[in-house]
Design a protein that fits this description.
The structure is a single chain. This protein has 94 residues and is mostly beta strands. The protein contains one helix and four strands; from the N terminus they run H-E-E-E-E. The chain has a four-stranded antiparallel β-sheet with strand order 1-2-3-4, with no helix packed on it.
Length: 94
Amino acid sequence: SIPALAQRPRPSHRELVSRLKPAIEDQEDTGGKMWIVVGGEDKGGILVRSGASFESKPFTTRLATGCRIEEMEIEGNRLHYRRIRGDGPNFGWV
């Protein structure tokens, strides 16, 4: 019989943030709700688009796992953010 593959435990958001070694400078937050990117670890981060629509142009760089982002607005299930700490586009939709 073939042994079952053990699933890797998902890291906590604190662990993701502690692993982050950003190459670009942090930005100051403006007091909005903060979010931590927890997805995309196996892909180098999550896809960011220029607009709320899934048809809008994606950026060439991803928002790194562990990034701290500030909520600017929510439209449906889409978040318009401002990057505070970590690598990726300064603004975008996820």
